[in-house]
């Protein structure tokens, strides 16, 4: 019976487990990817500790997490609950459209926003500027770059949550809804006391996944701003990537990766507890 | 379930949902609109309708993004990944759905843990290891990486399909003298084939759209994926945004058409693999 698992496990161990263990080891070495690694103990972590961009990146990841725990989950819940009021055919149409941004490649979404919306030359922002509105490209300002990037990811993401929440809402037992109805509950009371408690496990799971994904965010930052201007939108994953492939400081990149994983690990612990309660 | 509400509530509902609709569609409309316009028209007003419908952007985009090569690379990569994930994943899901011993719990736990591992946790040693072995710019090697990343999701989803098959069907086959391999290939696989199709669609979507791994491991011009060659085209200085949007539309259109026709499969699959609440 183990034979059935061999291909999956072999690929997984070679691609993920062994390199992951090597990353843990590399975090304690100085290595440029070519010459022999030199053991430096906690040197990489000490270097990160006194590295300004590292702290900016960590802070940005935390801001990102807070943002994504609230805004898209709120939008998703609102839209999903409103879909319950709409006839079936209508709700399917809304769902399909809301889901479209999810299936478009991140590189394309990033470029559409960059060129067609934010750009001062070819974008809607530039057009509004010409009309005299005081509006600037958020990606070019240190104070707004991170939020400019987050907006794009938000657009790409909230439809997924809406669809998931809607699927969960429809599975809330009919008797509970009937009971609330007989008691004369309004739509909002229904949400507050019946529907939201009914899909609590799904909301919890999505919040845990949000924490994990918020520390993995890479594509949009890398494509839209490369972490700039002046590291203002840098996150840990782009920082690690830059350290490994641009600065050829693989040891520090590995140490950064460990920090990312640490945050993920806590969330993963809860994720596995919830998932395995359901499926094992 | 459907809630029936007053007229006022219903109006507000449609207004809010309509705002959502507009938000989701606005950038997509800009994409389509501007793919039909000249660079000059776009600078004048990105919101305006094209003065003349023109398709020359598409021809230039196809040539400049080398889609005749890169589309083929993406298709190969996607197909290989689908085959690898579906074959290895369905075998794994088959046993994980049937056995309830402690060791299987450990395997499930391990697979769940790897779904949430950041790519950066294994990317750097993997890259330098692949470089040493000469596996950079190798489409098959990248499809193995995708398989490792996506198969836990696929296994969790397929497992629910295997679990839904009544035990009696398997038992009857065993009584008839079928080996476990025969049970798997002749009896179970045909029954769970809708699940495999769903997994193939979603893994195909992920592989087609993937950026980080593709841009890291496939760098030589004749090995780029469509998405990465789009990324490089749109990153050049003298950017013609009409052409860039045309290139974007060429990549997105097949996916969107497929999605609209098979939306239930997509949505249920993506939701089912990550949520069981």
From TrEMBL, chain A:
Question: CDD domains from the xrefs?
Answer: TM_PBP2 (cd06261)
Note the SUPFAM superfamilies from the entry: MetI-like
Q: Which residues cross the membrane?
A: 6-29, 62-86, 93-113, 155-172, 193-216, 253-272
Which branch of life, at top level? Answer: Bacteria
GO terms for CC?
A: plasma membrane
Q: Which Pfam families match?
A: BPD_transp_1
> How would you describe this protein's topology in the membrane?
Multi-pass membrane protein
Subcellular locations according to the entry:
Cell membrane
User: What InterPro entries does this protein's entry cite?
Assistant: ABC_transporter_permease (IPR051393), MetI-like (IPR000515), MetI-like_sf (IPR035906)
| This protein's UniProt keywords | Cell membrane, Membrane, Transmembrane, Transmembrane helix, Transport
User: Example GO biological process term?
Assistant: transmembrane transport
Which Gene3D superfamilies does the annotation name? Answer: MetI-like (1.10.3720.10)
The ABC transmembrane type-1 domain sits at 58-271
The entry sums up its family as follows: Belongs to the binding-protein-dependent transport system permease family.
The protein, known as:
Raffinose/stachyose/melibiose transport system permease protein
Native organism is: Kaistia soli DSM 19436
UniProtKB/TrEMBL annotation, chain B:
Superkingdom = Bacteria
Could you tell me the Gene Ontology terms of the biological process aspect for this record? Answer: transmembrane transport
Q: How does this chain sit within the bilayer?
A: Multi-pass membrane protein
**One Pfam family it belongs to:** BPD_transp_1
Domain (ABC transmembrane type-1) spans: 71-262
Record carries keyword Lipoprotein: no
InterPro entries hit by this protein: MetI-like, MetI-like_sf
Tell where it localizes: Cell membrane
**Keyword Ribosomal protein in record:** no
Chief location bin: membrane
The record, for CDD domains, names:
TM_PBP2
Gene Ontology terms, cellular component aspect? plasma membrane
Transmembrane residues, as ranges?
A: 12-33, 75-97, 109-128, 140-162, 183-208, 244-262
Q: Keywords of this protein's UniProt record, alphabetized?
A: Cell membrane, Membrane, Transmembrane, Transmembrane helix, Transport
* Matches recorded under PANTHER family: ABC TRANSPORTER PERMEASE PROTEIN MG189-RELATED-RELATED, LACTOSE TRANSPORT SYSTEM PERMEASE PROTEIN LACG
Q: Which family does it belong to?
A: Belongs to the binding-protein-dependent transport system permease family.
For this entry, the protein name equals Carbohydrate ABC transporter membrane protein 2, CUT1 family (TC 3.A.1.1.-)
- Its source organism is Kaistia soli DSM 19436
